Amino acid sequence: MVALIAFFDANVLYPSELRNFLMHLALAGLFRAKWSAAVHEEWISSLLKNRPDLTRQKLERTRQLMDKATVDALVEGYEDLIPSLSLPDDDDRHVLAAAIRAEAQVIVTMNLKDFPSDVLLQYEIMVQHPDEFILEFIELAPDVVMDAAETHRQSLKNPPKSIEEFLASLEAQGLPKSVAALRTLFQTSN
Question: I need a surface site. Which of 66, 77, 94, 149 has the fewest CB within 10 A?
Answer without folding.
Answer: 77
